[in-house]
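input
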Amino acid sequence: QVQLVESGGGLVQAGGSLRLSCAASGRTFSSHTMGWFRQAPGKEREFVAAIDWSGGSTAYEDSVKGRFIISRDNAKNTVYLQMNSLEPEDTAVYYCVADGSPFSTPQAMRVIMTSYYWGQGTQVTVSS
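output
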């Protein structure tokens, strides 16, 4: 059974930083794009960032470019999201996602597909 378990969420003041982690188990995703989505109250789930299997290619939603950094450690089957200069608008539940189809591009992860595996989500709250 595939599981994606997020950690690292919490409450932080505007301008602060958090680092999210997502550990996968049940199968390896070393040949698969992984990423993050988020969902704020009353809003649709939106793409945040993605990274290809090698770590050499990434994609970001425009509002987080220059502030968030996605990375991965295939030996640990884990993906990370370093979030800096956080803003109240970043408040949301953050979901880890892994594409079950291999070798897709990070840009393609902007569209939600049925092949994706999802974590349970971790709350990030940024106070002003």
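quick obs: The chain has no helices and eleven strands.
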